[in-house]
Design a protein that fits this description.
The protein is mainly β. It contains one helix and 23 strands. Strand 11 (126-138) and strand 12 form a beta hairpin.
Length: 275
Amino acid sequence: MLRPGLLLLLLGWAAGRPAPRVVTPEQPKPIAVARLRLVNGTAEKLTPGQGWKEIRSGARLATGDKLRVGDDSLLSIEFPWMRISAAANTTLGVDAGRLLATSLEEGRLEQDAEAGIIKLRTPEALVRGEGQVVVRRMNGATAVAVVRGSFRVQAAQLTVVVRQGQGTVVEAGKPPEIPVALPAAPESVSPGKDPVYVQKGKPILLSWSPSGPANHIQVYGLEADDLLIARDVPAPPVEIELPLAGTYRWRVVARTDRGLEGVPSTEGLVCVVDK
């Protein structure tokens, strides 16, 4: 036991000391990591400390930023080594930390990666790999469909490998489900290999069979791999409109009611003419 005099001395010494300085970790400075290209429609970006602002093509995406894509819109996020297409009604961001990762809150992403450098997070899972993958978050679950390559999906301390033509679904707090084969490609599409001509400003009628519970169509230029339209649609027939004259390729995938997208159909051709 301390003697009273010594105890008083120690208390007086402690009272005279300055309060300890609290050191907070320095936040990493934002780093521009990608270029944004608004393919069609509208999209917004949220930078920390600022409000939501409309995106124009050529804008830069930095760590800590968040994006949201409007109705009937498509946003391309172009990293030096990969590309992400964010479909309508998608909300995502780039983590502010030094380890680069994208976070999908809601919607649909299609990622084409040369190397598994960037992790893709959702509230339910962590996805990383090489190739082409479609990740969709809906109804509180994450659906992962591998179009090409191989991806690792981690959740609840368990990792599964999902290979080309396979998919898995991850529900909150649960490990990834055993990978299953993706829905088969629709066997017939119209318009097909023989192009259908339509006047500019007029809608084009697309149809296919068989149809999934839901479907997703994609439209490309004739000789370019840049995606021009990516849209969830109901059962066929479906009308779309292409605003510019030219020849386009289109395809469709069936989607399960849990969000897994299937194998793409063969491509059909549409030719839009001025008159």
